[in-house]
Design a protein that fits this description.
Strand order of the largest sheet: 1-4-5-6-7
Structural class: alpha+beta
Number of strands: 7
Helix content: 25-40%
Distance between the termini: 59 Å
Length: 165
């Protein structure tokens, strides 16, 4: 048995790997190897959500890329502390390909918020140029702390942009 050291933000530069020349951060809660099999654990305090497996899938890609673990030698474990439920998955190469694709799609979407879509300079567009949330709050009831993470009309109106929407 061998514990895999995991650098966190407190250590300076946290765990990451490169995917198409972009740094992808992946900080699993706990990882260890037994007989050549990488076990990755993530602990959750809430309920089971589908996107949790996407998150630990990125950790699986971290194990494959940074630690050169074969896909079928990566086991993911999501443990729900409140209920004691455990969700486990043994990865396949198709799972890793799926995770790579999801990351690439996410990065492509985020590039829309960078000046000249250039990750090398990493200069964000001004917020007034961002896309509005689909279910934006009405302009007469703006709330900066609503459940939407995109701009709404009310928030845009609060900026002194000189740009009418």
């Amino acid at each position: 048995d061998q514990e895999v050291p995991i650098k966190t933000i407190a250590d300076g530069d946290p765990e990451s790997f490169l995917l198409n020349f972009l740094k992808i951060y992946a900080i699993p809660d706990y990882a260890y190897q037994i007989d050549g099999v990488m076990h990755i654990h993530d602990w959750k305090t809430g309920r089971v959500l589908d996107h949790h497996m996407d998150q630990v899938g990125v950790y699986g890609l971290w194990a494959a890329e940074k630690h050169h673990s074969p896909s079928d030698s990566i086991h993911l474990h999501v443990e729900y502390l409140k209920t004691g439920e455990l969700v486990e998955k043994r990865l396949t190469s198709a799972d890793l390909d799926h995770t790579r694709l999801k990351i690439q799609e996410s990065v492509a979407s985020m590039l829309n918020y960078l000046k000249d879509r250039d990750p090398a300079t990493n200069i964000p567009l001004p917020q007034y140029q961002w896309e509005l949330a689909e279910n934006a709050a009405p302009i007469n009831n703006p709330c900066r702390w609503c459940e939407f993470w995109e701009l709404c009309e009310g928030e845009v109106a609060s900026y002194d942009t000189g740009v009418a929407r």
